[in-house]
Amino acid sequence: MLSKAAGGRPAKPSFVSYVSPEEIHIREPAGKEVNPYLLPGELLLCEASTVFKYVQEDGSNRGTYGKLVCTNFKVAFLGYESASDDNEPQFKNKVIGESDITLHCIDQIYGVYDEKKKSLYGQLKKYPEKLIIYSKDFRVFHFCLRCTKEEEVKRIVSGIVHHSQTPKLLKRLFLFSYASAAPNSPDAKNRTVMFDTFKDWHEELERTKGNVKYEVVSVNEGYRVSEKLPLYFVVPKSFLKSVTESILVHQGRGIPIWCWSCHNGAALLKMSAFPKEQDDSALQMPKLLDGIYKTIHAPPYEVLKMDDLSSSLPSLQDIQTAYTRFKQLFLIDNSIHFWDTDVKWFSLLESTNWLEIIRRCLKKSVEVVEQLERQTTNVLLIEENASDLCCVISSLVQVMMDSYCRTKFGFQSLIQKEWVIGGHSFLDRCNHLRKSDKEEAPVFLLFLDCVWQLVQQYPPAFEFTETYLTVLSDSLYIPIFSTFFFNSQHQKDTIVSGESHNAQSSPFRLLTVWDWSVQFEPKAQALLNNPLYAEKPKPDKSQRKTTRFKHHRQLSLPLTQTKSSPKRGFFREETDHLIKNILGKRISKLINSSEELHSNFREFYDSWHCKPVDFHGLLLPHIEGPEIKVWTQRYLRWIPEAQLLGGGTVAIATKFLDVMEEVQKLQKQMDEEHSQTAPEDADAVPTLRNSARLSSLFPFALLQRHSLKPVLPTSTWKDLEDEEDLAKRDDEFVELSGAD
Amino acid sequence: MLPTAKSSFKVRQQEPGAGQPRGPKFSSANAKRNRPCQAFPGIPGEFVLEAAPGVRRSLGASLRFDSILGTLFCTNRRVAFVPDVPPGAKAHPRCSFLHSEYDVALPCIGKLVAASSVSKAKVLTASSSLKFVPEELVLYCRDFRVLHFRFPESGLEPGAFRVTMAIARAQESDRDVAAWSDPTQLRNLENAQRSPEEEEDPAPTLLFESLQDWEQELRRLGPAGWRVSVANERFDMATSLPRYLWVPSQLLDNELKRAFAHFNQRRIPRLCWRHPGGSDLLRAASFHAASDPEKEDTRAVEALLLAGHARCVVVDTVADLPSPTEIQLAHVRLRTLCLPDPAVADEKWLSALEGTRWLDHVRACVRKASDVAVLLAERRCSVVLQESDDRDLNCLVASLVQLLADPHARTQLGFQNLVQREWVAAGHPFAQRLNLCRDGDRGEAPVFQLFLDCTWQLLRQFPAAFAFAEAYLLALHDSSYVPFFSTFLFSCQWERSRRGQHRAFGQLYTPVNGWRDAPNLKILPQASCSAPAGGGACLPSIWTWALHYSAQQRAQFQNTVYTRASDGHTAPPGCSKLKATLSETGAVFLLARGALAPQPHLFPWKNGSLVKKGPWRVPSSDSLSDQQGWPSSYPALLGEVLVPACVGPAIQLWRRCYLRGSPERQHGLFPPTLSGLTEELELLQECLNDGHWRAAAPPSPAESEEAGSPLSPSR
Q: Are strands B382-387 and B311-316 parallel, antiparallel or unpaired?
């Protein structure tokens, strides 16, 4: 009866360790009380018992019974039968369990009513018999509520829908209840530069040798200039003195803010464009801008080129649409859907346009790199708020050009600099508060995906692995870290200071995502590091760089001269025109005629790819059609059909780790022999070896325990077995027992 | 037994007679033609037709790319480019056979395009006349390489013109690939090649031309219940079948002979492989249309199909897989797509790739093979692959199944044995499919290349399971287009031996005319090409890699990530018993479109009549491993099977093979990282050992550990 309703299919006996819907009356969960593990500050909001969770929606009814709970942090499923210990996953998140979904991670909720799937939102009149939750990290959960008591169903469904879908106040974020309840752990020494102090910026300037022409300013202390701008930022020297008053009027718009300096002195700058409506102040604008360009266009600064990203890159709306479509390819209800899509997989993939957007971002970044590296021009990225695509492009350029950004801490510092402090509106773009869908756009994910392309093209150049990127993308939805839950530094500072006043307890401290020990044990953390990353020996660095650089200079010097001199004049004459365009937000291919840009780009790109790769030097991605790929680990990790037992890149990684371990051991022995001392600090090397056949989805393989997916769906075997004459059974018996 | 009789059947020494008319003629032609080109190290029997010095070979179409200066040769065998050695640099000892990225065998040239700034590019054939002096020559090779040669701008235009025309004519005229080289001297050269490094070949590749090869391989599989039949030794039962067949041991040869007539091309079911769990994989052609089970005695056929099992699953290979024509079509489209100057924009690349349907075909093959492999592991039954003539996709599926299920097939030797057995000996019509002779394009279909692509997919998905690396597959892929090796020249063993025999005798009597088309093959059987041939000659087998790949290149064939499979792979006791008798009829199932269906009649079904078009995988809630009452089969053994993923994102383009033509797209060909690590390991170990030596320390536990470690690099 139950199973008939479940899909018209005859009920199948379940997998060995699970119970089928029929057996529920026999196996009453009485006495087996399961309690959710709650974080500090986490409150249980509602729960429902005897919920049936399908193991994987492959069309079978296999699953397990348990309790479904909803807290102010997550939705969690607690099985009555605890998984046996040997199945303990090696890569376990300490905060989020295997069947936990944080409220912010819930993407869509569907209810099934009489075989019909309906999206659930708002006030519900009727409660579904099956609940399907799609999460933003691409898991799909199917819960059957038929055996659950009616009032519990009501409570849990409306609870989940309410807490995950309705708009929230910023102050109600779990972040704050966690921070006030959690014991204040001593602040671990973190090498990630947070860029919230004057010193951090200053050091960054020194590191990139940009301190000759640029300086850190503190005009925005107390957020006097702008709430969008960080407390400290870097501008061309003596720039602010000339134009301070007008800057104040425009709330920081029109200030070219330094991002990064190239080794040849060229700098990458970003600027938020002026809003479309300019009334009275519009008159001062030309004068102001003229001042700006006079300052930074003239020596000692390099020639300035502007790039309006809103005209050369897809809009946020496009990005959001593409991602929504792309995502849908991987959020599959069951495997049968997947079979249908393989034949047209590539065209489906292409029609989402997501990979094309990645390609365009990478291409744009290569263009900027070309201007910085070869033409030695300053590049000014312009965008409305300078906090979306500006972040993507400037970060990508730095990842490509600055090998420091390819180390783990360098990368984290980069995200901190360009995104967190740089004012990317994480709260709006991720729609954490569920306030409006219009602002939502996966810009940060786009950036991570672009970095992934680089990582998979040049694995030895990066200190971190793709697993690191995947985990980082997941952390976007874990509301115990402050990193990705504010729109700006200002917003965070004001709310934190407000909370601290209220709490009046010990200093209120929010966790940062860069403290990976909150989420992972050291053993699991080791999987985030690339064993093949070869650190660059320090003394070698400067030497090689200069020679390489010289070579480049020689190559590009005549080119630069011939090309830049006419441009200077051009630029000057056209300033008025240019300014009009900025005001009208219609900058397009003004500075660079597109053909010239294209040929420059091609030449640069091709000549770079003809040379052997220096993993510590400039790194350009391949951007041709076949080279932009799907981030398999992130998007396919929960899909059983994509899983390979004993295969995938994990198999190579395992081997690598083995060899590495061996090398390290031998090196240690060598050291011991020389020094006769025995240092006993064993590095945490993940022991992948103890499980003989890992799944290709390894760190995430949820399905490891199910020995093998069914390959041949046949009812015929069994039926025929039954029909087969009894005379054969003896034979059969002998045969099988013999085989065991 | 018979082989000994055969071996006395060797060709009488006809070589001098064959060699005579050629040698002087060519050497004189050679001598008077090109004085400066004598430096060209040719294969014996090869002579230079035309040469143009000062040619630049560039990596891409435009001047942007770096180029190499050298001399372009057109010989009667190939187009070769010899880079100039800069004065002072040590001259590269260049071996004439070595596979080189600069050389193209003439049959491998797909398209020849001459371009000039004054005229538009022109595709050249033998009959076409060139009206301009080419400035650039582009060779589109059938193995997906693209070679660009740029001629010097001044002074040597006639040379450019001449060499271009020579190539255009040569590529057309070189039809008889079997006459590719003079075997006698090849033999010497081969020996010369091999002697310095003294092959480390303890177990040569089995060519499956002799009885002991078949027996040796059957011993490896576990011979119980099977024997080698010599029924077809004289090819009188079936011409396209190999000499020796594996058949159930209880079936006598005279019973067996009755079965031949029931199958297309008389290709009866015979064993391919035995699963250690007791299942058997067989392959057969479809039932002959004229055979009628009602009237005739089909017991022999039944016994062959059931092979001693109670159940037999017939796998209709054709059902879900592309036909050779479709494969060829997809391959042509793929080649067009992968040209270096793509007409396809980057953003349309993926759908264009899908449009070729090549990956679809790859997917279908991999999926079918994995279904069969799992079936073999899960059940005790006989699985019969059935294709209408059992010569194309059966080869592919049978070998893929073995790659998935048999760890031995994933070693280099095992793989070579596999190709030799399931393709070469089993009679895949290579001559027609590869079409190296260019006699009509009708039968051309890269079925073997499709197999290599499938193998690459498996290698990519299971990098640690294969002892060979991508470079090996690439080498095999490229070598299949070089008609220098006997392996892929013939369509079956019978043709191989017949041609050898025929030509040999023909030559004895008509030595003058004979030379042109005589392959001078040594008459079979021959245990192995590497065996001392006693003056006899033959084209080398492709497996003598030392002949055409340098030691350095061959070192890359090894997969450094390979983890040897645990060798607990012996047959469980008791499963070797064959209980079914000849008269017993068993149940027959049909596997098609991913589902098993019972077959009411054992036999026969006509070609294709049972295939109904439908959706690929029938949605079904239950599965083999899922059923209660059916004791879970052999989970341990199932664990040994590689189960590949066939979903859309899992099947990828073999870019190192297909995208080689585009300079922008080739990068990091064989990342040396792991080998670098291994080297470091070696170095450290040596250092450590040295240290021990000097310190005269007793062997530490570390050393013994090293010895036992599977990772200690093999030397």
A: parallel
